[in-house]
Amino acid sequence: MSHLNNCPKFGVHFIKNAHRLQTANVEVHPSALGTEPIQVVRYAKKLFQEGDPNKRVRARAFEKVFALFDRDDHKSYFDALKLAESLDGKLRNDAKQPVEFKAIASVPCFELWLLLHYEDIRHPLHRDEVLTRLKHHIPSYEKGAGGSFSTTMGNLDIASQRARKLAALSTAFDDTEPSTEIVELVALLIAFGN
Description:
This protein is of the alpha/beta class and 194 residues long. It is built from 8 helices and 5 strands.
């Protein structure tokens, strides 16, 4: 079972429906501690360790935990990456197995992933430019709104190729170079359905 933290805009619910993922396989929970990257990672850790009966989340019931966040101008970005990296394989689930704990970061922002469905990006862009260019392709796009996966899914293969090319050039630890690890998460979710 996997736990995704802070990604309501990502379209996980659409992927779950389109690929018939069982709710027992994937759960999505926005951070209750805030949207700063370090808060997202801390909440993912807390939710994994303590669970939440109000959300029907059992403590330590996951094999994988993913914390999604943007680079934007967040001061805690690098601390969040380091914390997630330090937790990977160190936490144990209820079956006493090591848990994959991964930050899924996008530089400069989540919308880069969506823009890659339409454009090949090779140079740093400010998040405002990413959003402006994305609105050229999806005029009705609003940050934080749902429906982005269903709108862009026809270009998923090309976006995945472009994101992997970026990954070969830079990582989430590169401060300004564009990158997004959303591609790996999308591939994992689709694999769950196959």
